[in-house]
């Protein structure tokens, strides 16, 4: 939802801000108070505080006129105002829960407790790829398979893998390096690719295999090893987990603490009524 619409809806919904009658009030438009915070928020789009104040006053004039002329009596507009208020408050509350749940100390404790689960395998690998587009015809797929089979025959026939990669790989970035893809980690590449290379002995080529990107022949340059990602590497994942769990836990508490009464039988009738009123104007 756009910031202007949210702000305008909140003005329509009440006093305009928490500044009603307070020293934070920087303008009053009819019955609506304008706070310094609203002006600072408007200024985030650029300009000076003075121009931001002018802009807020102009929008408040329109909102005040809308209220005086009874626009809030229109069900759809009233619903939009309440939806804006609800979304602003809900978003702010979720953000606050997330901040509280993802402190440095909390994330480091989570990292320590999840170290075993975070363990991943990685392997230094080289590959030769023949690309196959998702929309490729059957003939194009057959031709691609023939090319990768030829590559495989050259490699198992004793030709240097790096030379074949430079000559035949359709990935110019790795092909120029003899196919060297660097270290790939489990969960960060196509699962089919990792499954194929993780079982290779160093120096041994794989048989041709397919991924979403095309057909490959790969070679492990080193033996696979198991690693634990550093805290910084997984910090974002840990923070997302913490925020999600905090919101889910709080939602469970709220469903128990706050009474909710639903009237689903009224939905179709109310929807029809609102639509009819909107169509009649």
Structure description:
With 281 residues, the protein is α+β, with helices and mostly antiparallel strands. It has eleven helices and seven strands. The chain has helices at residues 3-13, 36-43, 49-68, 75-101, 104-118, 138-156, 161-168, 172-175, 191-198, 231-257, 267-280, and strands at 25-29, 32-35, 120-131, 180-185, 209-210, 214-220, 225-227. Strands 3, 4, 5, 6 and 7 form a five-stranded antiparallel sheet that branches. A hairpin with a 3-residue loop joins strand 5 and strand 6. Helix 1 (3-13) crosses helix 4 and helix 5 crosses helix 10. The longest helix is centred in the first third of the chain and has 27 residues, at 75-101. Keywords: Isomerase, Rotamase. Pfam families: Rotamase. Residues 260-281 are annotated as: Disordered.
Oligomer: single chain
- Which structural category do the helix and sheet elements fall into? alpha+beta
Main sheet properties: 5 strands, antiparallel
Q: What share of the residues lie within helices? A: 55-70%
User: What integer value in Å does the Rg equal?
Assistant: 31 Å
For the record, the CATH class of the largest domain is Alpha Beta
Q: How many beta-strand runs?
A: 7
Can you count the helices? 11
- Specify the CATH architecture of the largest domain: Roll
N-to-C SSE string, H for helix and E for strand = HEEHHHHEHHHEHEEEHH
Strand content: 5-15%
């Amino acid at each position: 939802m756009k910031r202007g619409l949210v702000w305008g809806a909140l003005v329509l919904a009440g006093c305009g801000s928490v500044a009603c009658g307070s020293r934070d009030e920087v303008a009053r438009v009819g019955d609506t108070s304008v706070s310094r915070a609203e002006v600072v928020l408007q200024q985030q789009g650029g300009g000076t505080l003075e121009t931001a104040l002018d802009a807020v006053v102009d929008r408040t004039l329109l909102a005040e006129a809308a209220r005086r002329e009874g626009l809030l009596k229109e069900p759809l507009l009233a619903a939009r105002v309440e939806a804006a208020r609800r979304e602003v408050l809900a978003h702010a509350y979720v953000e606050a829960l997330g901040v509280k749940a993802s402190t440095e100390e909390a994330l480091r404790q989570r990292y320590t407790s999840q170290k075993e689960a975070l363990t991943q395998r990685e392997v230094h690998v080289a590959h030769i790829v023949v690309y196959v587009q998702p929309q490729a015809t059957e003939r194009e797929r057959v031709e691609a398979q023939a090319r990768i089979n030829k590559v495989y025959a050259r490699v198992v026939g004793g030709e240097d893998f790096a030379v074949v990669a430079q000559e035949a790989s359709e990935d110019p970035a790795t092909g120029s390096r003899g196919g060297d893809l660097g270290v790939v980690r489990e969960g960060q590449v196509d699962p089919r690719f990792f499954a194929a290379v993780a079982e290779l002995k160093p120096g041994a080529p794989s048989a041709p295999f397919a991924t979403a990107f095309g057909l490959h022949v790969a070679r492990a340059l080193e033996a696979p090893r198991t690693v634990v990602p550093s805290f910084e590497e997984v910090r974002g994942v840990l923070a997302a987990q913490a925020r999600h769990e905090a919101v889910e836990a709080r939602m469970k508490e709220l469903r128990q603490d706050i009474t909710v009464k639903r009237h689903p039988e009224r939905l179709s009738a109310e929807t029809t009524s609102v639509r009819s009123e909107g169509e009649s104007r």
